[in-house]
Amino acid sequence: MNWISVKDKLPEIMEDVLIRVKCLSYYNVEQGCYKGNDEWINCWYSRRNKNLYPVSHWMPLPDSPK
After folding, report:
1. Count of CB atoms within 10 A of residue 8's CB?
2. Where do the domains of the chain lie?
3. Rg for the chain (alpha carbons), in Å?
4. Which of 12, 24, 47, 48 has its CA 20 to 30 A from that of 66?
5. CB 20 within 8 A of CB 29
6. What confidence score (pLDDT) does residue 46 get?
7. Closest CA to 29 of 12, 53, 7
8. How far apart, in whole angstroms, are the C-alpha atoms of residue 9 and residue 23?
9. pLDDT tens-place string over residues 8-56
10. How far apart (Å, rounded) are the C-alpha atoms in residues 48 and 61?
11. Phi, psi for residue 32 in degrees, rounded to 5
12. Contact predicate 23/53, CB 8 Å
């Protein structure tokens, strides 16, 4: 799986995905979902200003371990 830029494509609304969040000079990777209208649900976006911690990329969640 490859990372998808939010500039190129967005996931389905309320689809659980991995997201890459820019945090000052580094990036975090975490699970989140797209709410629509440039809004995401995840710990960085929902608790902090979206302009300070923007989601830059996303990818589908990998298969669960067996």
Report:
1. 7
2. 4-60
3. 11
4. 12
5. yes
6. 55
7. 53
8. 21
9. 999 999 999 999 988 778 888 889 999 888 888 876 555 555 566 788 9
10. 24
11. -160, 180
12. yes
